[in-house]
Amino acid sequence: MKKSPFKGPSVMSLRNRIAFYYTIATAFLIAIVFTTIFFMVEKIVYKQFDDQLKKEISEIFADSNISPNNFQGFDDFKDNIDADESDSGDENRHKNKKLKVDTEFIQLVNNNGEVINKSASLSWCVLAFNPNQSGRSYFNSNFGGSMVRQAQVPLINQQGVTEGYLIIAVPLKNALIVLHDLRDIFLFSFPVILLPLFLLTRSIAIKSIRPIEKVIATAEKMSQSNLDQRIPLPFHHDELYRLASTINALFGRMQDAFQREKHFTADASHELKTPLAVVKGTLEVLIRKPREREHYETRIQFCLKELNRMARLIDQLLMLARYESNKMTPHIMVTALSPLVENVVERMIPTASTKGIAITVNRADNAHIAADPGMLDMILENIISNAIKYSSSGSSIAIEVKQDEGNIICSISDQGIGIPEEMLNAIFDRFYRVDESRSSSTGGLGLGLSIVKKLADLQQIQVGVTSEKNRGTTFTLTSPAAHNA
Amino acid sequence: MRLLIIEDEPGIAGFLKDGLEEEYFAVDVAYDGKSGLDLALTNEYDLLIVDWMIPALSGIEVCRQVRKAGSLVPILFLTAKDTLEDVVFGLDAGANDYIKKPFEFEELLARIRVQLRAKNKADDSLCAGSLSINPATHQVFAGNNEITLTPKEFALLEYLIRNKDRVCTRSRIIEHVWDIHFDSDTSVIDVYITFLRRKLEAAGCGNLIQTIRGVGYIVREPGMV
Fold first, then answer.
1. B18 vs A contacts (CB less than 8 Å)
2. Is B11 part of the contact surface with chain A (CB cutoff 8 Å)?
């Protein structure tokens, strides 16, 4: 490893953690597998020895013509022990008196463990006797410094009493070497496997989390000025792909929000600075030279008009801000809609009649909704004054209040210039004006419909709009009918 | 000097026209981008003042079209947009300068003078022979003596001196000194030239304005004939 795998004092990087956990798990599994293999091999080896011992035992019994359950006396064995050995063995053993461990050993003991008889291969040595084993048993024991596999067969007489034991043993030397080698190989190969495994897993982890590095790099570079950047999507449609596309979608939403905010700021600054620039400029030019009284009066009148417009704009902006921070709560009460509509229309008639616009109201009695009358008044005034503003002279505006399946619907239809369909969604945005030059000639500020929307939302009134260019626009307010308490 | 204002806000266009005309400029106003571009391309202006957000064609687009037509007329952007990106975007579109609303009228005048300043000149003063004029204060001096001129006389003299050693045709003089509402009777130039010559002669700078018969007038540096 070229670098330290740790980035901080206590933080392990993801790739190292993956590799570490993976290696731990694999080490555990390998340990289980190795142990199992080792013990199975050991068992197989011992079983082979046990089979050999079994065969020897039955041969001894067969040669002596006795059965272990019908024991007559130790004398029956006498010849067979040596005879058996001389069959398989080396004649020289007796002479040099040296203990040979690569052959089999046979020994007869009585109940007290006293040796009755033993094969010549045992020489002066004695096989271990385990008095606690009453049945036939196989076990390892130390014999003259080396390990032997040993069988102990009880010799039972006709009365069922154990008279003594036949003990037979074979040396384990070669088998033990194999088993020890196997264990050594396992112990050696364990770390030898694990270290490359750790490195390999780590490099795989690095490779598979590289897209995450890309995500991090892109996200780090992201700022307000380059919100249009996106994370390159990985080739495979996997979790990282989903992560990247989720973050991209988040960036998209952030970009939209920033865009809207930027738009709003730009629009607000235009709306506020233009009247300011007009007033400032007009007065600056006015004061440069002495002028006629009439000249002063017209210019000052003009400035006052601009200032009023600005004051109205600031009022509306503050109102919107208050509603948006939810500092104003509506006083909801059961309100009769028709009289309220008529009231607003009455106020608007002077403005409408100067443009030659007729307003007709089709009222429904008993149309009650739960709303704040003051806010409702403001909503209606905004919509109706818009209708008047964008209608040509001589046209008419139709207002209808009707009941429809438990809902009260109020619709305001004009025959004005209409709104292009692609802009219908945006008309409730603050400062949005269909006319992009934001000309002040219509007197609009671009806040009316945002206020309408905000007020309607506060009272759970739905605002709908349909429009056809040059044919007219219809606004509808829908609210569940409330029963007069 | 003749200016074109392209601005949809009547309040701003109104005081700009008032104020600039008092500063002896001939001022035309267009209230949308399209008519503004038409005026800019068909007349010869010494400077354009363009608002960014105007109907029909944005100020940026007007600026691009004017530059595309090969005109090098100085363009001054006038807008409420004030972020760094907006400023850079506007200047990159071909504007020469940028002034944010609300602005000081005096600053606007100074920026206009900068754009009209002759190339390779450190200050605004214009001179021919012993005559020197200051466009900022509208003063004309013959040596140390000030000559009092009417606004139109001043504008005419300023134009001739700015185009020193070049023949100014009658139609160009009309275009640059009078605004678009002036009908094309060019004999009015002769009247003003007569007034100017009389005043200059009284101050000892006679013979500065010479007539090119059938074409127009020229101001020549004395001794270069």
1. 282, 285
2. yes
Q: Residue A478 belongs to what H/E stretch? A: strand A472-480
Q: In the block, which residue shows the tokens 């004006």? A: A433
CB contact under 8 A, B53 and A437: yes
Chunk chain A into consecutive blocks of 10 residues (it has 485) and report each block's average pLDDT, rounded to whole numbers.
48 82 91 92 89 85 74 64 45 42 74 78 77 79 80 81 83 84 90 89 85 80 78 80 86 84 78 86 89 91 89 84 77 88 89 88 85 88 87 88 87 85 77 60 69 85 86 89 71
Q: Give the model's pLDDT for residue A333.
A: 87
Residues in chain A closer than 8 A to B104 (CB atoms): 280, 284
CA of B54: which chain A residue's CA is closest? A437
Cβ distance B101 to A439 less than 8 Å, yes or no, reads no
Residue in B closest to A272 by C-alpha: B80
B147: containing domain: 126-219
- Give me the CATH number covering residue B77: 3.40.50.2300
With vertex at residue A159, the alpha carbon angle to CA A153 and CA A162, rounded to the nearest 5 degrees, is 30
A435 interaction partners in chain B (CB closer than 8 Å): 55
Query: Can you give the pLDDT at residue A404?
Result: 83
Which chain A residue has the Cα nearest residue B51?
Answer: A437
Residues of chain A with C-beta less than 8 angstroms from the C-beta of B105: 281, 284-285, 288
Residue A222 lies in a domain: no
Provide the ipTM. 0.73
Amino acid (one-letter) located at A83: A
Q: What is the DSSP string of A236-250?
A: S-SHHHHHHHHHHHH
What's the pTM? Answer: 0.56
In a domain, A187, yes or no: no
Q: Helices (DSSP H) in chain B: which residue ranges?
A: 10-22, 33-42, 59-68, 84-92, 105-116, 151-162, 170-177, 187-202
Question: Which pLDDT belongs to residue A92?
Answer: 42
Share of chain B above pLDDT 90, in %: 21
Strands A396-404 and A358-362: parallel
Please give the average pLDDT of every successive group of 10 residues along chain B, which has 225 residues. 89 90 90 92 90 86 91 88 82 89 88 79 72 84 86 88 85 82 76 88 82 87 59
Both A272 and A357 in one domain: the answer is: no
Q: Domain for residue B225, yes or no?
A: no
Residue B54 DSSP symbol: -
Interchain contact, A440 vs B9, CB within 8 Å: yes
List the domain range (segments joined by +) for residue A161.
Answer: 30-181
By Cβ distance, the residue of A270, A285, A441 closest to B80 is A270
